[in-house]
Each structure stands twice: as C-alpha cells, then as structure tokens.
Amino acid sequence: MIIKLLKSNWFYLVLGMSIGLIILLFSKPETPAPRCKKPIEPDYSYYKVERVIDGDTLRLEDGRQVRLLGVDTPESKHSEVPVQVFSKEAYEFSRQMVEGFEVRLERDVEPTDKYGRTLAYIYLEDGRMLNEELLKRGYAYVLRYYPFKKKADFLKIQDKARQEQRGLWSYNLSLGRLAIIAEKFDQLSEVGKRQFDVELDKLIDKYPKKEE
Fold first, then answer.
1. pLDDT digits over 97-111, tens only?
2. Would the pTM of this model clear 0.70, i.e. be above it?
C-alpha cells in the first residue's frame, strides 16, 4: 500500500513538473515596465552669467558651463569649422541678453550633456526665455533628435521664423544653409532621421570644440 502511494506521488510530482516546464517554455515573458527617470527638482534660484561663450553656451559665476536646451546656433568658436553665417549675430544677441545679468535655469529630462555641461532653459528676470528668443529671430534651430518637453512649442516658434524668413531661414544658399538642412531633415523617413543623427554625432565627435 505504501509503495503504491509513493509511486502515485512520484507520478503526480513528475507530471506537475512537466506541465510547469511546458508552460514556462511556451508562455511569453512579461516585459518589465520601463523605469521612469526621477524628475529633476525645479530650481527657482537666480545665477549671474559671468560670460557668454557662443550663442548657445554660457558660463555662470559659480563656474558651471550651461548649454541651452533644445536649440543650436551656428558655430562662432570652433577648432576646425570656420565662423558660420549668423554665428556672430547669435553670439551678440545672447551676450546682450544675459551676460552680466542674473538668470534662472530650468532643466528637463537630461541634466547634463556628454561634455558635462548643464542643459537648461534660460529665463531672464522679465520672464522671457533665451532659447525661445533665439528661435524667434532665426539665430538658432531646434535640435529635433534629442528628447525634451518643450520640443513641440519650439517647433512652432521655428516654423513662424521660417515663414517670416528670419535669420537662418532666409532662403539663400549662402545664408540659409543650416535652414535648408533642417528642412530636408523633415522630409526623411524615421529610419533616415536616425541614420542622419548617427552620422551627425560622428561628425561632432570628430571635431570637438576648443576648451575654454
């Protein structure tokens, strides 16, 4: 009787393990929920701008270097690239707007870029945002391939500047080269845009900016 019971238990044990193994092998594993990045705490403090380095980069009095989030201006100080059209206008505009004044920084998804610079929207004391003001005048264009919360708003401002043919958006082969590139980027497929970003990153890494 005991032997029969043991045999019976072993039979059901093996049967249960076999069924469990089959379920494990053929069931689709659950995809773990993506981990959300911890939101960056808002900073309502104001910091004095010691120096504007170029149109989209500045240095604070506390030593931090800040890169304007979501926008790019033509190169004015680069070890390999000649001074680009509208780079001086962008630089002078940013310098007059913030150099020597106090500004408030608002950060987004990524706190810093790969060079360790703080990424931020720069707000003046009167409430205007330097990033937006550059876009309005056509002195910058939107960095589409990086995620940031204000991208949709920035694109609307850029579209208006393009319609009004401001700055970089003046449709002239010598003056609007960056604008034309940005417009052609819009016409690419999603695969094409990703490949473009990869090639652009390679080019940027090949020609690093001079250390200030």
1. 999 999 999 999 889
2. no
